[in-house]
Amino acid sequence: MPALGLGTWENDDPAQCTESVATALNAGYRHVDTAQIYGNEAAVGEGIAASDVDREDVFLASKVWIDQLAPEDVIESTRESLDKLGTEYADLMYVHWPAGAYDPAETLPAFAELRDEGLVDRIGVSNFEPEHLDAATDALGEAPFANQVEMHPLLRQEELREYADANGVELVAYSPLARGKILDDPSIREIAEKHAVSAARVSLAWLREKGVTAIPKATGEDHIADNFASLELELDDEDVERIDALDRTDRQVDPDFGPDW
User: Fold this and answer.
1) If DSSP states are collapsed to H, E and C, what string results for the chain?
2) Taking the complete model, does pTM exceed 0.90, yes or no?
3) Would you please indicate which residues are annotated as catalytic (active-site) residues?
4) What does the pLDDT look like over 191-228, one tens digit per residue?
């Protein structure tokens, strides 16, 4: 899984979404993340097709929404997602939240069936806490490939990072810029000034230092390029320690049906 991807949450203008996906892939991205609930899978697929990059070279991920997590709905809705995306398979398909129709003993075997049929390469979960991950592992007979959660310097997810390291689960960070909040943090801004880069690059580089894949949303060519340039930024130990010391828990995404964080 590439260490940096393009997020598409709230990128719901079809033409803009198609253009941003194609722009990102042509700029060097090889990881694109979407979801059924985003309503843009068709536009994402069109962006991949419009780019200069072969589908086989793109790590494509989507997510099954909470009202489609009964076994038969998992199968049917994933097939519909693949049709919209214009692809025969997804590199990674997530359970979007442990909510709604989700039942690990029923839902996850349906994901395993999709994998057996070659429609999904890897099984992931999203917004799972350690107890949810334990139950998912029991149901699958193996740990999920990835857990996608909100993570950024203002929500460091230390417990989940320890769990991931101990159990071989990849962590994927959505809202890795805290929906813009990291731009206002004095420490992040000072580190950015020190390296003559944007605060966004600092946040993304810090996540990479932690072994976490980030999927920032960006629509404009400049932001797409700036986020990608974070791969060239190497933070020093002092930078990392300063970010690690931030005493904040600023969660940006917390729906009523979410876990008891």
Assistant:
1) CCCECEECCCCCCHHHHHHHHHHHHHHCCCEEECCHHHCCHHHHHHHHHHCCCCHHHCEEEEEECHHHCCHHHHHHHHHHHHHHHCCCCECEEEECCCCCCCCHHHHHHHHHHHHHCCCECCEEEECCCHHHHHHHHHHHCCCCCEEEEECECCECCHHHHHHHHHHCCEEEEECCCHHHHHHHCHHHHHHHHHHCCCHHHHHHHHHHHCCCEECCECCCHHHHHHHHHHHHCCCCHHHHHHHHCCCCCCCCCCCCCCCCC
2) yes
3) 38
4) 999 999 999 999 999 999 999 999 999 999 999 999 99
